[in-house]
Amino acid sequence: MNNKASLFFQTITPEILSPADYTNWDGIKAKVKAIRREIALLQSLDKDNPVQDLTALLHNNPRVLKVLQLLIAHTPEKIFFDEKDKYIDFKADLENVANDTGRAKAIAEIFVEMGLVEFLKEVRSVEDVVKGVLLGLEPNARKNRRGAKLEAVINGLISSTIEKINKEKGLNLSFEPQMYVDLANERKKIDYVILQNGKQKIAIEVNFYSTSGSKPSEVLGRAYPEVQENLKKKGLGFIVITDGIGWESMKPVISTAYEKLDYLINIKQAKSGELEKAILELLKGL
Q1: The whole model's pTM is what?
Q2: What is the Cα–Cα distance from 165 to 168, expressed in whole angstroms?
Q3: Which of 2, 48, 116, 126 has the lowest tally of Cβ within 10 angstroms?
Q4: Helices 126-136 and 36-43 sit at what angle, rounded to 10 degrees?
Q5: What is the dihedral of CA 12, 18, 23, 28, to 10 degrees?
Q6: What is the tens place of the pLDDT at every residue in 66-75?
Q7: Is the separation of the CB atoms in 224 and 263 below 8 Å?
Q8: Cα–Cα distance measured from residue 74 to residue 111, given in angstroms and rounded to the nearest whole number
């Protein structure tokens, strides 16, 4: 492993989320509270006449459908089955079941056929099951929180770095997130673009990998070097900020990337002054 790669792994940030960010307990409690009445109604479902009783519950209390959606851990708005007329549109059917008992019955029959009622016979607390499902959906929600936290960290980092450069060097730098850059053969959206006097100067791409896989290897090994080459043809610099525990099992990829990319740094390196150094070097050479 080359020296740059060694320094990268010595300063890697395994996870951008703090322990307090990891599981949104307050969010789970708030979601349960919002449908607690509907949960109680479903708890009282007549298991001996499930289709008839569930039809009535859906017709009179359409939000019961939200509880049913959670109980089967289905997050998309629609679910389809083996027959064309057997489906549920969780968003549209909130209104449909209130206006059409036939539609309410059709949905009730689907859930009975799915075996949900038989499952509920063995359940002491529907609310506890809902909480368990919401907890089970946390990995996807955590991914979204990770993205939001990364965005906030990088926004602050680039903003403070540019402010420091402007103050010390008298440069008129600014930056724009999610900005398009016109390359030779395509118009590419870049995570961040640094401008000087309103003119595009440096592109910054950012990612964070909590797991390893083929995608990060492809991005760093092939995609980014191609982007860098195309940016150079347009007279633009390129910086890659990447981090995450996912890189620990892909160390050769990082080593190879340092041979292909001019500026590759992680978050701690960027905070310690490497981002400022890269920006100034690139501006001097452009």
Answers
A1: 0.81
A2: 5
A3: 48
A4: 130
A5: -140
A6: 999 999 999 9
A7: no
A8: 13
